[in-house]
Specification:
The structure is a single chain. Helix content is 41%, strand content 14%. It is built from seven helices and six strands, in the order βααβαβαβααββα. Strands 3-4-2-1-5-6 form a six-stranded parallel β-sheet, sandwiched between helices. The two termini are 34 Å apart. It binds 3-methylbut-3-enyl trihydrogen diphosphate (2 copies) and magnesium ion (MG).
C-alpha cells in the first residue's frame, strides 16, 4: 500500500529487462523467461492501478529487438497475442484502457488484430491506461514526427516544443514522472528519448520476471523522497 498519497506519479514507464538472464540462471531457454515476464506485467499493472497511477508505459519490444533470432521474435509475438487475449477480461474488470506506441504496422497481422480488438473493447475505461511500446524506439518516433511535419507543410515558425509533441506517438500523454529499468543495466536503450527529459530514473536490481507488486510500491515510495527541480533552484541545504 502507498502510505504517502501526496506525490503519486501520474505516469510510470518501465523498461522490462532481464527475462533471458532470468531463464538462463535456471538453465532454461530464454523464452521461459519471456513467459514468466507476463506475470510480472500483471503485477505491475495491478500495483499501478491500485496506487492510482494514470499511465503505465511498458517497453515490450524495441525496434532493435527485430535483430534477435527469428525463433525468439516469433515466440515473443505469439506470447503477446496469447497474453492480450487472456487478459482482456481482466483489463475490463480493472477498468484498464489499453493503448500502444511504436511501429504497429510492422507487427504480424494476428498481433495487430488482437491489439486492435483489446484497444477497442477497453477504450472507454477510465482507470489506468496501459501503453505497450511495440516495435518502438525513441529515434524512430522522432524521425517519424519530422516526416509527418514535412508532409503537413509545417513552417519553421510553427515549430515549438509544444507543437512538436503533437507529432509524437505519446501526444496527449504526460511525460513519465518515473522511468524504471529492471535487469541490472543502467541505460535507456532508445526508449522515450524526448519524453524522459526530466523523469526520475530507477534501476532496481531485479530481473523482470521477479518483479512484484511490492517492488512497484517500494519504487514509488523512493520517488516520493526525491526532489524534482526542473532546472530551478533547490531547497537550501545550508
Ligand atoms: C527483456 O528481456 C524482454 C525483451 C527485450 C523483449 P531480455 O530478453 O532482453 O532479457 P536479457 O536482457 O537478455 O536478460
Ligand atoms: C530493452 O531491452 C528493450 C526492451 C525491454 C523491450 P534490451 O535487452 O533490448 O536492451 P539492450 O540491448 O540490453 O540495450
Ligand atoms: Mg535485455
Amino acid at each position: 500500500m502507498i502510505n504517502n498519497l501526496n506525490k503519486i506519479p501520474e505516469h510510470i514507464a518501465i523498461i522490462m529487462d532481464g527475462n533471458g538472464r532470468w531463464a538462463e540462471e535456471q538453465g532454461k531457454e530464454r523464452i521461459f523467461g519471456h513467459q514468466n515476464g507476463v506475470n510480472a506485467v500483471r503485477n505491475a499493472m495491478e500495483a499501478a492501478g491500485e496506487a492510482g497511477i494514470k499511465f503505465l508505459t511498458l517497453y515490450a519490444f524495441s525496434t532493435e529487438n527485430w535483430n534477435r533470432p527469428k525463433e525468439e521474435i516469433d515466440a515473443l509475438m505469439g506470447l503477446l497475442v496469447k497474453a492480450i487475449h487472456a487478459e482482456t477480461d481482466n483489463l475490463m474488470q480493472n477498468n484498464v484502457r489499453l493503448q500502444t506506441i511504436g511501429n504497429i504496422t510492422s507487427l504480424p497481422e494476428d498481433c495487430q488484430k488482437e491489439l486492435q480488438t483489446a484497444m477497442d473493447i477497453t477504450k472507454d475505461n477510465t482507470g489506468l491506461t496501459v501503453i505497450l511500446a511495440l516495435s518502438y524506439s525513441g529515434r524512430w518516433e522522432i524521425v517519424n514526427a519530422i516526416k509527418m511535419m514535412v508532409q503537413n507543410n509545417v513552417t519553421v515558425d510553427d515549430i515549438t516544443e509544444n507543437s512538436f509533441k503533437n507529432y509524437l506517438n505519446t501526444k496527449n500523454i504526460p511525460d513519465p514522472d518515473m522511468l524504471i529499468r529492471t535487469g541490472r543495466e543502467q541505460r535507456i536503450s532508445n526508449f522515450l528519448l524526448w519524453q524522459i527529459a526530466y523523469s526520475e530514473l530507477f534501476f532496481p536490481d531485479i530481473l523482470w520476471p521477479d518483479f512484484t507488486k511490492q517492488d512497484l510500491v517500494d519504487l514509488i515510495a523512493q520517488y516520493q523522497t526525491r526532489q524534482r527541480r526542473f532546472g530551478k533552484t533547490g531547497k537550501q541545504i545550508y
